[in-house]
Amino acid sequence: MVGKSDVERIKVMHGAGGTMMQKLIKEHILKYLSGSNAEVPLEYLDDSSVFNGIILKSDSYTVKPLFFPGGDIGRLAVAGSVNDILMVGGEPKALALGLIIEEGFRIDMLDRILRSISETSKEANVNVITGDTKVVEKGSIDQLMLNMSGIGLRHKFLDRNLDVVKQYYGDRVYRWILDRNIMPGDKIIINGYIGDHAIALLSVREGLGFQIDVVSDAMPLNRVVNEALRVGGVVAMKDPTRGGLSNLLNEWVDKGGYGIEIYEESIPIRDTVKNACEYLGLDPLMLGNEGKVVMAVVDEMAEDVLKAIRSQPGGENATIIGEVTDKHKYVVMRTVIGGYRVVPPPIGDPVPRIC
Amino acid sequence: MVGKSDVERIKVMHGAGGTMMQKLIKEHILKYLSGSNAEVPLEYLDDSSVFNGIILKSDSYTVKPLFFPGGDIGRLAVAGSVNDILMVGGEPKALALGLIIEEGFRIDMLDRILRSISETSKEANVNVITGDTKVVEKGSIDQLMLNMSGIGLRHKFLDRNLDVVKQYYGDRVYRWILDRNIMPGDKIIINGYIGDHAIALLSVREGLGFQIDVVSDAMPLNRVVNEALRVGGVVAMKDPTRGGLSNLLNEWVDKGGYGIEIYEESIPIRDTVKNACEYLGLDPLMLGNEGKVVMAVVDEMAEDVLKAIRSQPGGENATIIGEVTDKHKYVVMRTVIGGYRVVPPPIGDPVPRIC
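^ Those are the sequences you sent over. The predicted structure of the assembly is below.
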C-alpha cells in the first residue's frame, strides 16, 4: 500500500509558466492528448493551435484580485486570448466566454466585468459570440473565474510577412509564426516596459500593501502586430505572460535549437518596477506581462519593424533587446557592468495568479 | 447610500438552466455582449454559435463529484461540448481544454481525467489540440474545474437533411439546425431514457447516500446525429442538459412561437429513476441528461429517422414523445390518467452542479 505522503500532488508552480509546468504538460497532458492531425498541434506548445486554417485558443483566467490598477479580469481575458491568436499570425474573429461564478457574487461587479469584456473586444475588433455560465455554491470558487476561448483566421498580412522572411531564409519558413522558427541573426524586439502587470497586481494584493504608481499593461496587441506583419520579416512572436521574458526566451531556445543573447541595458523597465523588484526580491525577467509581445525579426528588417511598431499605441517604447545566435544554446544576458550571465528558465512565475 | 442587503447577488439558480438563468443572460450578458456579425450569434441562445461557417462552443464543467457512476468530468466535458456542436448541424473538428486545478490535487486523479478525455475524444472522432492549465491555491476552487471549448464545421449530411426539410417547408428553413426552426406537425423524438445522469450523480453525493443501480448517460452523440441527418427531415435538435426536457421544450416554444404536446406514457424513464424521483421529490422532466438529444422532425420523416437512430449505440430506446402544434403556445403534457397539464419551464435544475 502506498502511503498518503507518496502520492504526487499538484503544486502552485505547476501552473506558473515555468519548467515545472512544462514538465506537467509533457509528462501528463501530452501523454494523453498529443497526436492530433492539427497543422499546429498541441505538442508544439505554441501560443495557439491551428486546425484546417482555423486558429483555436483557450485560456482560463483566475487573476487575483479581479479588479486591479489598469484593468480587470475581463480586459485581461480578452487581451490574453486575442494576443495568443495574434502570436501565431492570426486575426482574432470570435470569442467564447465561459463564466464560473461563486454564489453571492455581486451582480453589479459582474456587469463591470461584462462591460470591460465588451469594451476590450471592440478594441480588439472581435466579438464574444457564445458562452456558458456556471454558478457554484459559496466556498467552491474564489469569487469568479472565467475562460476565454477564441478562433482566428490567417492574418491578412501573414503571407506578405512570410514572403519577406523567405527572401532571407528561403524555404526554412513555416506557414505560421511559431516559436521553433527563430534563426541565428534575428533581432529580438519587445514593444515596451516589462513587469508592469505583475507589479500592479502585487501592489493591491491583500497584506502586501505597498504604494506604487504603476498600472497593468493588459491590452490587445492587434495594432502592434498588424504593423509588424505589414512591414514583414517577423520570424517568431510570443507574449511574455506567466514566467515573463526569461521563460519566453528559454522556450524559443528549446524549440528553435539556437541561443539568444540579450543586453541588460536595453531592456525597457520603469524605475518604479525595478525598485519594487529589488524591494520584493523578484527577478523582473520572470514577471508576467499582458500587453507585451516579443518578436524575432530578420536582422535586415528589424529597424523597419521597430519603427512601424513605435507608431502604434502600445508600441511607443519598443526596442531591440537582443539577438538569436548559433554560438551556444542558452539564453545569455550581457549585463550592465560588462559580463555575461545565463538566464535560466524560471521554475515558475514568482507571482501566482497574475492571469 | 445603498445598504449591503440591497445589492443584487448571484444565486445558484442563476446557473441552473432555467428561467432565472435566462433572465441573467438576457438582462446582463446580452446587454453587453450581443450585436456581433456572427451567422448564429450569441443572442439566439442556441447550443453553439456560428461565425463564417465555423461553429464555436464553450462550456465550463463544475460537476460534483468529479468521478461518478458511468463517467467523470473528462468524459462529461467532451460529450457536452461535442454534443452542442452536433446540435446545430456541425461536425466537431477540434477541442480546447482549459484546466483549473486546486493545489494539492492528486496527479494520478488528473491522469485518470486526461485519459478519459482522450478516450471520449476518440469516440467522438475529435482531438484536443490546445489547452491551458491554471493552478490556484488551496481553498480557491473545489478540486478541479475545466472548460472544454471546440470548433466544428458544417456536417457532411446537413445539406442533405435540410433538402429533405425543404421538400415539406420550402424556404422557411434556416441554414443551420436551430431552436427557432420548429414547425407545427413536427414529431418530437428523444433517443432514450431521461434522468439517468442526474440520479447517478445524486446517488454518490455526500450525505445523500442512497443505493441505486443507474449510471450516467454521458456520451458523445455523433453516431445518433449522423444517422438522423443522413436520413433527413430534422428541423431542430437540442440536448436536454441543465433543466432537462421541460427547459428544452419551453425554449423551443419561446423561440419557435408554437406549442408542444408531449405524451407522458411515451417518455422513456427507468423505474429506478422514477422511484428515485418520487423518493426525492424531483420532477424527472427537469433533470439534466448528458447523452440525450431531442429532435423535432418533419412528420412524414419521423418514423424513418426513428428507425435510423435506433440502429445506433445510444439510440436503441429512441421514441416519439410528442409533436409541435399551432393550437397554443405552451408545453402541454397529456398525462397517463387522461388529462392535460402545462409543463412550465423550471426556475432552475433542481440538482446543482450536474455538469
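The mean pLDDT of chain B is 96. Residues 241 and 284 of chain B are 12 Å apart (CA to CA).

Shout if you want it in another format.
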